[in-house]
Structure prediction request, 140 residues.
Amino acid sequence: MALELECKITRKLPVTQGTSARGPWQKQEFIVEYQDGNYPNQVCMNVWGEDKVNDLNRFNVGDKVRIQFNLSSREFNGRWYNDIRAWRIELAGMTPADAPAAPAQPRPAYQAAAPAGFAPVAPAPSIDDMPADSADDLPF
Prediction:
């Protein structure tokens, strides 16, 4: 499952390196902040592999980015561990074909608060919205 999030990079953690049976590996975790309603939320994401770590290094703390990522979980000794792995990072408001010289346009607050792909919906009707003199209240 691929998901997308527009957010701001708030922190980069040090690169972790090691060697496995398949050879050397690199991993870097970073913290992003996004609006969820009225409150900001923070999420720790990661990138795996030297090429993805180098891609992350192109962005600075404070940059507004669009991140495409996958979610996965695994169980170990009765505990569950979540993994949020970014596989594409780009400046917010840009497409991959755009040049990085153009600054991202600020989005209105009501759009920034909604997750990607979320369409605003009218509120559910209340009892006050019902006609007052209806003899037959069945909808069919």
Q: What stands out?
A: Strands lie at 2-20, 23-36, 39-48, 64-76, 79-91. Residues 99-104, 107-112 have pLDDT under 50 and may be disordered.
